[in-house]
Design a protein that fits this description.
Radius of gyration: 20 Å
Number of helices: 6
CATH class of the largest domain: Mainly Beta
CATH architecture of the largest domain: Sandwich
Strand content: 35-45%
Distance between the termini: 37 Å
Number of domains: 2
Number of strands: 17
Helix content: 10-25%
Largest sheet: 6 strands, antiparallel
Structural class: alpha+beta
CATH topology of the largest domain: Tumour Suppressor Smad4
CATH superfamily of the largest domain: Probable inorganic polyphosphate/atp-NAD kinase, domain 2
Shape: elongated
Strand order of the largest sheet: 7-6-17-14-9-10
Amino acid sequence: MSAPFIPKRPVVTAYPKMPEAFTEAEAISAFLKEKGMDAPVGSLYDENLRKRVKKGEFDMLITVGGDGSVLRAGHLCAPSGVPILGVNLGRLGFLIQIDRKEWREYFEKLLNGEAWIENRMMLRAEHLRAGESLGQSNALNEVVVGRGQNLRPVRLTAFVDTRQLTSYVADGLIAATATGSTAYALAAGGPILPPELRNILLVPIAPHLSVDRAVVLAAGSSVHIVIKSENAVLSVDGQPPTPLMEDDQVMVTAADVTAQFVRFGDPGYFYRNITAHMNENSLGFPR
């Protein structure tokens, strides 16, 4: 566990499509003001606020919403090294430790020096065509090469550190971080990895007569996906897909930036969180 963390210049952001998020964000800001901290409130999409975060004006970003809000905050904050604290208004909250009913007690702990910073690896995805880079972006959860609107499976060949791993005929292939192992990769049948791991997880989606097992790569490995059909798309952290052409390549490596999260208690919080979600989902089903 890292040294205790006490912020001095927090900012509170809300997910704009949840009106109650702004109400909660204002309450958090008022609470911090009472404690002698100025904590401005804004939308995660506000361009002026985003510029201020990128300039390093704040030393912590509080985001009120769900896991999607934390993903967006991760993309914004990682390059500037700004830690994120999520307050959950959504349904799942795998990335969030604090529920809307309990943030006051956690903020008291935060100001008492009872919080610590958790570092999570991100991925960098680069789209290449005929050796030329067409763009790159970072992912906190996953990079997906999959079929677009077309119902036909895609054909892909995956290389690990330049050595061919295997070829897939599938709905797609997920390259996930440990953080992303509880997202799309989990729904596709992949294992759950502890958040501190710096491994890339490869999970095929609905493979057809090809390798159907997830593969956990050694930390530091890179993945090179070669597209062998015409109907593939690239999507990073669920963002709108980019069309891919046959023979395009997607390079996936560890990003040079890290997402930082403000955490409480011992690192075992991760397993408690998962167990709570699993139990919640099993309620109402026959045992």
